[in-house]
Specification:
heterodimer, A: 3-stranded mixed β-sheet, B: alpha/beta, TIM Barrel, 38% helix
Chain lengths: 322, 325
């Protein structure tokens, strides 16, 4: 038995259910444009049913902290940026080094919220769920990295405004006390000192628990400082140095252990994953550990997504029983 | 061999006629019949070959009418791949991403009939370019459950090499290896080079081309000049000639297929804009080494827009060609 609290959570993005894909095709065709509000209203019923489906399959799989599935998000950036004044959506560009693409936002003016960003979807999901829901937003560094800036011409000022927007959005988010900020850029690109200051500023300015989820790389160099700045941290454990970082420094906060690979249909042996996590727990101080996929499950086909979320529960129980 | 200066060409995919897409969806529901479907497929190929000829394209094919998605098409033929279902590419667009679940086997001819049909139904003076997806891209865009990364890429290179040999035996002179993943992982450029050598090993062709797009070409240039190919066909319009200076810094020793039309915007470029783009390409290589093409496959464009873009591309090329001659 371990003193570490063990839970399971999902990483946010889910593959869209087939009928939602079809419905979205009907209203937007195959062009670049995402779902505008008017179009979205037309299919709000299908979206809500899809959310229910995503919630139910997480509940059935025993997930302790489910997510909404980011079902109306075309990608990590488009959904938040289309809700901001001062940005417009441009052409497709590769998403890091994956074979996925996203519409690159261009920042042409001072960024301001144009209404709330994720409140509607979270309200809808909370209404459907008996459990707590984990909302998600991209972090300011990733938003800055993946957008094209024609206005600020200063990373610092851009990150500052993005951080203010994120803080406002989080602080107005009721009925939940947690937020996951996805920051693949912190793991994929070089990190400047003031990036982490911005993360700390967000965390300090909100009452919610801020969990920074990193993936697509290793963050061993910044792990101690990042850990110090937030309420929780997520790591892609398919990068060996991330294991090392946890072993060396432990984690007195919330740890999202990304131990299921969203980028391969091969199903992990749950006993083997559980064994690795158990060893980690035995070797260092861990307070709260969430078993989770390394990143969005929308990198997988539907059937394999189902297999993988079932694994999370198996791994959790196996670790608990050891 | 094509002896024309500034040959115009397409990359591969072209918008499918609406009636053909409709017929395909009826066929997928099992309500059309194999024989009638084959007839429809042949008709679609003939229409698109004609359309390219009317535009005045010098180096053509059938716009990949018989193919679905560039990885899916080959993975569905090669034994050892399995499809678990669609996976998101961007937004609401999903493709059937394959998984390698067993040892991969050579399936025998994949494109030979496609080539023979194009040959039979296009003008005998036309030069045909056969696009085939490269091993690196197939591997990078698949789930891999059994091989190491290198093993998978080299196994696919072997299979594609066998296919290119069969195509060469059937009379193909020009192959375009589509490797849009080429610059995705710049540290693997040597691996792509090794795979490309294997792909073209022991094959007699007039022209060996690699096509790439969405590139971080600054990170793999000039290393790619060591590849054993004659030509690189690259995207320029979509990134607004971002890499022009990099290609000028070190002499571009291969032929260049200049992507001078943006395939992500349905707005048709004017003839003079395309002329300007071609002239920018002439800053990189001399006219004898320049081919003129769109950035990439055109299948996501409205068909009318694709057609008008190609027409303007040919008009612009004719003007520049006359100026040179």
């Amino acid at each position: 038995m371990t003193n570490t609290d063990i839970y399971s959570t999902t990483s946010g993005f889910f593959p869209r259910p087939k009928n939602l894909i079809e419905a979205a095709k009907e209203i937007e065709g195959l062009q670049k444009d995402g779902m505008e509000t008017n179009n979205k209203n037309k299919i709000s019923n299908i979206i809500s049913k899809s959310r229910e489906k995503i919630l139910n399959l997480q509940t059935k799989a025993g997930i302790d902290l489910p997510t909404e599935g980011q079902l109306v998000w075309d990608d990590l950036l488009a959904h938040p940026f289309t809700k901001l004044k001062g940005a417009k959506m441009e052409g497709l560009i590769r998403y890091y080094n994956t074979n996925r693409f996203y519409r690159r936002p261009k920042i042409t003016g001072k960024l301001k919220r144009n209404g709330t960003i994720i409140h509607d979807e979270i309200k809808n999901m909370i209404g459907l769920s008996k459990q707590k829901i984990k909302p998600l937003l991209p972090g300011p560094i990733t938003m800055k990295d993946l957008a094209e800036d024609e206005f600020y011409k200063s990373e610092k000022h851009l990150i500052e405004d993005l951080s203010k927007i994120i803080i406002k959005e989080i602080n107005e988010l009721e009925d939940t006390d947690i937020i996951q900020l996805d920051e693949p850029s912190l793991a994929y690109n070089p990190v400047k000192e003031f990036y982490l200051d911005a993360i700390r500023y967000i965390s300090d300015s909100t009452k919610h628990d801020v969990i920074v989820q990193t993936y697509f790389g290793q963050i061993n160099d910044i792990y101690p400082k990042l850990l110090d700045s937030v309420d929780g941290i997520g790591l892609d454990l398919f990068w060996p140095k991330n294991w090392e970082a946890i072993k060396e420094h432990g984690c007195p906060k919330k740890l999202n252990a990304g131990c299921i690979n969203s980028h391969n249909t091969k199903i992990e042996k749950y006993t083997r994953v559980a064994e690795k996590i158990s060893k980690l727990i035995d070797g260092c101080h861990l307070n709260t550990l969430y078993v989770c996929p390394n990143y969005g499950l929308d990198f997988l086909p539907w059937s394999k997504m189902l297999d993988k979320i079932k694994l999370l529960e198996k791994i959790k129980n196996e670790v608990k029983s050891r | 061999m094509i002896n024309k200066l500034l040959p115009t060409t397409i990359i591969g995919s072209y918008p499918k006629p609406k009636w053909f897409t409709k017929v395909k969806s009826i066929h997928e529901k099992g309500k059309f019949g194999e024989e009638k479907m084959e007839e429809a497929e042949n008709d679609a190929c003939k229409v698109i070959i004609d359309e390219h000829e009317i535009c005045g394209i010098d180096v053509l094919n059938d716009g990949e009418m018989r193919r679905t998605e560039m990885v899916e098409h080959f993975a569905s033929k090669i034994p050892g791949f399995k499809f678990y279902g669609p996976v998101r590419v961007w937004g609401n667009n999903y493709f059937n991403k394959p998984s390698v679940t067993r040892e991969l086997k050579d399936p025998g001819p994949m494109l030979v009939d496609e080539f023979k049909f194009i040959k039979k139904h296009s003008d005998e003076n036309n030069y045909i370019k056969m696009p085939i997806t490269g091993p690196y891209t197939i591997a990078d865009w698949s789930f891999n459950e059994i091989y190491s990364r290198k093993e998978l890429i080299m196994r696919l290179a072997d299979i594609i090499n066998s296919e290119i040999k069969r195509l060469a035996d059937a009379g193909v002179k020009c192959i375009q290896l589509d490797e849009p993943a080429l610059s995705t992982h710049p540290s693997e450029v040597d691996l792509v080079k090794e795979a490309t050598s294997k792909v073209f090993d022991n094959v007699k062709l007039d022209k060996k081309i690699i096509h790439a797009c969405y590139g971080k070409f600054d990170q793999i240039y000039p290393e790619i000049l060591d590849f054993e190919v004659d030509q690189f066909s690259l995207e320029f319009a979509n990134n607004n000639f971002e890499f022009l200076d990099i290609f000028k810094e070190n002499e571009f020793t291969k032929e260049l297929g200049l992507g001078c039309i943006d395939v992500h915007k349905s707005e048709v470029e004017s003839v003079s804009d395309i002329e300007n783009n071609i002239n920018r390409g002439l800053n990189i290589v001399p006219p004898e080494k320049l081919w003129i093409n769109p950035d990439c496959g055109m299948k996501l464009l409205p068909r009318k827009s694709a057609y008008l873009k190609l027409k303007n591309m040919v008009k612009a090329t004719n003007i520049v060609r006359e100026e040179i001659e």
